[in-house]
Amino acid sequence: MSLVPAVLLSMLLAAQAPAPQLTLPEILDRVAEEAEVLEQNAPKALTQETLEQRALVPPSRFQPRVGQAATVAPKPRLVVREIVSEYSVGTLKESDSRDLLEFRQVVSVDGRKVQSAEHARHALSLGIQSPDDRVRKRMLEDFAKHGLVDVATDYGLILLAFTKRGLANMQLKLAGEARVGAENALVLSWRQTSAAGGELEFFGNQAVRRPLQGTLYVRKSDGLPLRVQAWAEHPDTNRMIRDEAAVDYALSTHGFLMPASVVHRHLVDGRLRIENLYRYEPFKLFSTDAEIKFSEVPDTPPPPPEPPKK
User: Which of 66, 148, 182, 231 lies in disulfide reach of 244, CB 3.0 to 4.6 Å?
Assistant: First the structure.
C-alpha cells in the first residue's frame, strides 16, 4: 500500500472515531461556568413570559341536585388561565442574600389587556431598582390575584443552583445518556445535601427551605446544560405533597443560557392538581437592544402648549 492512501485511511478512521467522553469534573466545570455567566447577565435581560395554568379546583358550593344526582359527589372543575407578563430578574435590596429572583408585570389575562407592554416595563424597572422589598411583594400579590390557584416562581433560575458555591452543597453522579430534542445528552443525578440553597416555600408568615433533587442533562459533546429537572416532597397533615419542575435552557443571541420553558407540576398524594407551563420569548438586553425602553411613561398625555400671546 502506498503512503498516501495509508495516510488518508488513518485520517478517515480518526474522523470516525468517537470523541472521548467528558469526565464528571469537566462537566461540572462547564455547568458551573454557564451558571455563573447566567448569574452575571440575567439581571440585564428582559423578555415576555406566557403562563398557561391548568388547575383542578373544588366544585362550586352552590350545586342544586335532585334525585340520583344528589347522591353523587361533585367532581373538581378544570380551570385554565393564561397570563402574559413582562419578565426580568433582580435581587431583594433589603435581603442579606444576593440570590436572584424573578420579577413580573402582567400585560394581559386570558386575552384581556391589563396594561401596555411599555407601562409594564416601566413598572418592572421601578420594582427592580426600588430599595424597598415591599415593591416586589406587591408584584407577587398582583401576579397571584388574577385567579391563579398556585404560583410557582423562580424555577426558571434553577441553573443558578449549579454555581461552584451551589455544587459544594450537592451530590452528583453520572446516570446514563438520553436525548433532549435533537441533542445527545449525558444525564447526571443530583441531590442537595442541605436546605441552604433549596426550594423556598411560604406558609403564612413563615418561609421554609427544602432541599431539592433531580436530574441534569448536558450536551454530550461539550457539557452545555440543556435541561434541569427538580423535585421535592413533604408531608402535609395526612397528605403527601410533591412539586416537580423541568426547565429547558437555550443559548440567547447574546451568547449565554436563559430559560426557554418551564413545566411545573403540583401533586397531592400522587394526583396532579396544578400544572404551570411557562414559555419565554427570546431574551433582549437592556443595554444593546434599542427597542427596549425604560423611560418614564406618563399615565395621561401632557396638555397642549398654550398659543403664543398676540
Answer: 231
Could you tell me which residues come within 8 angstroms of residue 112 by beta carbon, excluding any fewer than 6 positions away?
A: none
**Cell 435541561 -> residue:** 227
Number of domains forming the structure of the chain: 1
* Domain hosting residue 219, numbered range: 21-57+73-285
Backbone angles phi, psi at 96, to 5 degrees: -70, -25
Structural domain includes residue 2: no
C-alpha distances out from residue 286 to 26, 88, 127, 290, Å: 33, 10, 15, 8
Residue 123 lies inside a defined structural domain of this protein: yes
Whether 12 is in a domain gets the answer no
* 4 belongs to a structural domain: no
Kindly report the CATH number assigned to the domain that includes residue 104: 2.50.20
pTM: 0.79
